[in-house]
Amino acid sequence: MVGLFEWFFCRKTTLEKRQTSQLFVKDDSDSKARPYSVHDCVFCRSYTSDRGAFHIVWEDADFIAFRDIKPAGQYHVQLIPKQHITSVRDLTIKDVDLVRRMKQIGNEILDQFQVPSTHRKMGFHIPPFNSIHHLHLHVQALPYVSLLRRIGYPVVGGFGPFDKGFSWFVEVGQTTRILERGARVGVFPS
Question: Which site from 63, 114, 143, 152 is most exposed, i.e. has the minimal number of CB atoms within 10 Å?
Protein backbone atom coordinates (compact mmCIF):
# COMPACT_ATOMS: atom_id res chain seq x y z
CA MET A 1 0.00 0.00 0.00
CA VAL A 2 2.88 2.37 0.75
CA GLY A 3 4.23 1.71 -2.75
CA LEU A 4 0.91 2.68 -4.30
CA PHE A 5 0.77 5.82 -2.13
CA GLU A 6 4.27 6.80 -3.29
CA TRP A 7 3.32 6.16 -6.92
CA PHE A 8 0.32 8.51 -6.71
CA PHE A 9 1.82 11.30 -4.62
CA CYS A 10 5.61 11.20 -4.48
CA ARG A 11 7.05 9.73 -7.66
CA LYS A 12 8.63 12.24 -10.03
CA THR A 13 10.78 11.00 -12.84
CA THR A 14 13.09 12.64 -15.31
CA LEU A 15 14.96 11.14 -18.20
CA GLU A 16 18.61 11.61 -18.88
CA LYS A 17 20.12 10.36 -22.12
CA ARG A 18 23.63 8.96 -22.21
CA GLN A 19 25.96 8.62 -25.16
CA THR A 20 24.97 4.92 -25.39
CA SER A 21 21.53 3.46 -25.98
CA GLN A 22 20.87 3.49 -22.23
CA LEU A 23 18.34 5.77 -20.61
CA PHE A 24 18.39 6.41 -16.91
CA VAL A 25 15.11 6.91 -15.13
CA LYS A 26 15.95 8.97 -12.11
CA ASP A 27 13.57 8.78 -9.18
CA ASP A 28 13.84 12.02 -7.18
CA SER A 29 13.03 10.19 -3.94
CA ASP A 30 16.16 8.03 -4.35
CA SER A 31 19.63 9.18 -5.31
CA LYS A 32 20.32 6.02 -7.32
CA ALA A 33 19.36 5.88 -10.97
CA ARG A 34 18.29 2.55 -12.36
CA PRO A 35 19.31 1.82 -15.94
CA TYR A 36 16.53 1.56 -18.51
CA SER A 37 17.39 0.30 -21.95
CA VAL A 38 15.50 1.66 -24.93
CA HIS A 39 15.57 -1.91 -26.21
CA ASP A 40 13.42 -2.92 -23.21
CA CYS A 41 10.63 -0.57 -24.28
CA VAL A 42 8.13 -2.22 -26.62
CA PHE A 43 7.08 1.10 -28.16
CA CYS A 44 10.67 2.28 -28.71
CA ARG A 45 11.14 -0.80 -30.87
CA SER A 46 8.40 0.49 -33.22
CA TYR A 47 10.87 3.02 -34.62
CA THR A 48 14.14 1.17 -34.05
CA SER A 49 14.65 -2.56 -34.23
CA ASP A 50 11.22 -4.17 -34.64
CA ARG A 51 9.28 -1.99 -37.10
CA GLY A 52 7.73 -4.98 -38.85
CA ALA A 53 5.79 -5.97 -35.72
CA PHE A 54 3.77 -2.71 -35.85
CA HIS A 55 1.12 -1.65 -38.33
CA ILE A 56 2.41 1.89 -38.83
CA VAL A 57 -0.20 4.37 -40.11
CA TRP A 58 1.70 7.66 -39.75
CA GLU A 59 5.30 8.77 -39.15
CA ASP A 60 7.56 11.80 -39.21
CA ALA A 61 10.94 12.63 -37.65
CA ASP A 62 9.51 13.10 -34.14
CA PHE A 63 6.41 10.88 -33.89
CA ILE A 64 5.11 7.51 -35.04
CA ALA A 65 1.56 6.12 -34.97
CA PHE A 66 0.47 2.51 -35.26
CA ARG A 67 -2.70 0.51 -34.84
CA ASP A 68 -3.51 -0.77 -31.35
CA ILE A 69 -3.24 -4.57 -31.13
CA LYS A 70 -6.49 -4.70 -29.11
CA PRO A 71 -8.60 -1.92 -30.60
CA ALA A 72 -11.33 -0.49 -28.40
CA GLY A 73 -13.14 1.12 -31.35
CA GLN A 74 -13.41 0.92 -35.12
CA TYR A 75 -10.10 2.77 -35.35
CA HIS A 76 -7.68 2.78 -32.43
CA VAL A 77 -4.18 4.13 -32.97
CA GLN A 78 -1.29 4.68 -30.56
CA LEU A 79 0.63 7.89 -31.24
CA ILE A 80 4.04 8.11 -29.56
CA PRO A 81 6.95 10.53 -29.54
CA LYS A 82 10.22 9.04 -30.75
CA GLN A 83 11.89 10.56 -27.71
CA HIS A 84 11.29 8.17 -24.81
CA ILE A 85 9.03 9.81 -22.21
CA THR A 86 7.76 7.41 -19.57
CA SER A 87 4.19 8.70 -19.15
CA VAL A 88 1.81 11.65 -19.03
CA ARG A 89 2.81 12.12 -15.37
CA ASP A 90 6.29 13.19 -16.52
CA LEU A 91 4.98 16.09 -18.61
CA THR A 92 5.36 19.69 -17.46
CA ILE A 93 4.42 23.14 -18.74
CA LYS A 94 7.40 22.85 -21.11
CA ASP A 95 5.62 19.99 -22.88
CA VAL A 96 2.41 21.83 -23.82
CA ASP A 97 3.53 22.18 -27.46
CA LEU A 98 4.34 18.45 -27.60
CA VAL A 99 0.79 17.60 -26.45
CA ARG A 100 -0.74 20.11 -28.88
CA ARG A 101 1.28 18.60 -31.73
CA MET A 102 0.15 15.10 -30.72
CA LYS A 103 -3.49 16.26 -30.78
CA GLN A 104 -2.98 17.80 -34.23
CA ILE A 105 -1.43 14.59 -35.58
CA GLY A 106 -4.22 12.54 -33.98
CA ASN A 107 -6.81 14.64 -35.79
CA GLU A 108 -4.91 14.26 -39.07
CA ILE A 109 -4.94 10.48 -38.65
CA LEU A 110 -8.67 10.42 -37.90
CA ASP A 111 -9.22 12.70 -40.92
CA GLN A 112 -7.53 10.03 -43.08
CA PHE A 113 -10.07 7.51 -41.75
CA GLN A 114 -12.90 10.04 -42.37
CA VAL A 115 -14.02 9.96 -38.73
CA PRO A 116 -16.45 12.79 -37.89
CA SER A 117 -15.29 15.14 -35.13
CA THR A 118 -18.21 14.02 -32.94
CA HIS A 119 -16.87 10.44 -32.95
CA ARG A 120 -13.29 11.19 -31.85
CA LYS A 121 -11.62 10.59 -28.51
CA MET A 122 -7.96 11.16 -27.66
CA GLY A 123 -6.23 10.80 -24.34
CA PHE A 124 -3.64 9.18 -22.09
CA HIS A 125 -3.83 6.51 -19.41
CA ILE A 126 -2.29 7.67 -16.13
CA PRO A 127 0.14 5.39 -14.26
CA PRO A 128 -0.21 2.97 -12.66
CA PHE A 129 -3.15 2.29 -14.98
CA ASN A 130 -1.07 1.98 -18.14
CA SER A 131 0.52 -1.17 -19.53
CA ILE A 132 3.39 0.36 -21.55
CA HIS A 133 5.77 2.84 -19.95
CA HIS A 134 6.22 5.08 -22.99
CA LEU A 135 4.00 8.13 -23.47
CA HIS A 136 1.27 7.20 -25.92
CA LEU A 137 -1.83 9.04 -27.02
CA HIS A 138 -4.85 6.84 -27.65
CA VAL A 139 -6.42 8.11 -30.89
CA GLN A 140 -9.86 6.52 -31.18
CA ALA A 141 -12.93 6.49 -33.41
CA LEU A 142 -16.15 5.92 -31.46
CA PRO A 143 -18.29 4.00 -30.71
CA TYR A 144 -16.41 1.44 -28.65
CA VAL A 145 -16.63 -2.21 -29.59
CA SER A 146 -18.09 -3.11 -26.17
CA LEU A 147 -19.10 -1.61 -22.84
CA LEU A 148 -16.11 -3.31 -21.23
CA ARG A 149 -13.71 -1.56 -23.62
CA ARG A 150 -15.47 1.78 -23.03
CA ILE A 151 -14.90 1.55 -19.27
CA GLY A 152 -11.15 1.66 -19.86
CA TYR A 153 -11.28 5.22 -21.21
CA PRO A 154 -13.41 7.34 -18.83
CA VAL A 155 -13.23 11.11 -19.22
CA VAL A 156 -14.23 12.77 -15.95
CA GLY A 157 -14.86 16.50 -16.05
CA GLY A 158 -13.34 18.80 -13.49
CA PHE A 159 -14.95 20.89 -10.81
CA GLY A 160 -13.97 24.13 -9.14
CA PRO A 161 -10.32 24.84 -9.94
CA PHE A 162 -9.77 21.38 -11.46
CA ASP A 163 -9.82 20.55 -15.18
CA LYS A 164 -10.12 16.81 -14.51
CA GLY A 165 -11.87 14.70 -11.89
CA PHE A 166 -10.81 11.34 -10.41
CA SER A 167 -9.94 9.10 -13.36
CA TRP A 168 -7.20 6.87 -14.74
CA PHE A 169 -7.64 8.41 -18.20
CA VAL A 170 -7.14 12.06 -19.19
CA GLU A 171 -8.44 13.57 -22.40
CA VAL A 172 -5.84 15.44 -24.50
CA GLY A 173 -7.58 18.82 -24.03
CA GLN A 174 -7.64 18.33 -20.26
CA THR A 175 -3.95 17.48 -20.37
CA THR A 176 -3.13 20.70 -22.21
CA ARG A 177 -5.12 22.86 -19.78
CA ILE A 178 -3.56 21.19 -16.72
CA LEU A 179 -0.02 21.65 -18.05
CA GLU A 180 -0.68 25.26 -19.07
CA ARG A 181 -1.53 26.03 -15.43
CA GLY A 182 1.85 24.63 -14.41
CA ALA A 183 0.20 21.63 -12.74
CA ARG A 184 0.89 17.93 -13.26
CA VAL A 185 -1.47 15.25 -14.52
CA GLY A 186 -2.44 12.58 -12.02
CA VAL A 187 -5.25 10.17 -11.20
CA PHE A 188 -6.73 12.53 -8.61
CA PRO A 189 -8.37 15.82 -9.64
CA SER A 190 -5.89 18.21 -11.23
Answer: 114
163 within 8 A of 43, measured Cβ to Cβ: no
Catalytic residue among 76, 84, 125, 138: 138
Q: What are residue 64's phi and psi, to 5 degrees?
A: -140, 145
Exposed/middle/buried for 103, CB within 10 Å: 0-12, 13-18, 19+? buried
- With 0.85 as the threshold, say if the pTM is over it: no
Model pLDDT for residues 119-150, shown as the tens digit of each residue: 999 999 999 998 899 999 999 999 999 999 99
Task: Please say whether the beta carbons of 91 and 14 come within 8 A.
Answer: no
CA-to-CA distance for 101 and 95, rounded, in angstroms?
A: 10
Give catalytic status of residue 133 as yes or no.
Answer: no
C-beta neighbour count of 139 within 10 angstroms: 30
Task: For 85-124, write each residue's pLDDT tens digit.
Answer: 999 999 999 999 999 999 999 999 999 999 999 999 999 9
